[in-house]
């Protein structure tokens, strides 16, 4: 039997995939993460929220290992980011020892509030830009 966290994950990701992400991908100012599909080998683009600090981009995944883009990063951590309308390459690092709730305090407030509210398995990600 599914627990509340599993149900929440399924509902939120279904809404993101069918409603939110298709709209957000089209916004020219939206930050996007491109990973390589671990099964297909095809580019996979996910709207994200985070903050650039020097040559590092920080974000918190709301569903951790359940997120498809996190699974893709585990298979191939080379990624691309669209920041301020320009694509940049980098290497993603999953940081399970980082405190994601504390990290959210330093990231954009609106996105962080959504991640805190909807997330079930928070995971910090740092992308070192080339």
Automatic annotation (TrEMBL):
Report the domain of life of the source organism: Bacteria
**One Pfam family, short name please?**
F420H2_quin_red
Full protein name: Nitroreductase family deazaflavin-dependent oxidoreductase
Q: What is the lineage of its organism?
A: Bacteria, Bacillati, Actinomycetota, Actinomycetes, Mycobacteriales
- Record-linked NCBIfam families: hi_GC_TIGR00026
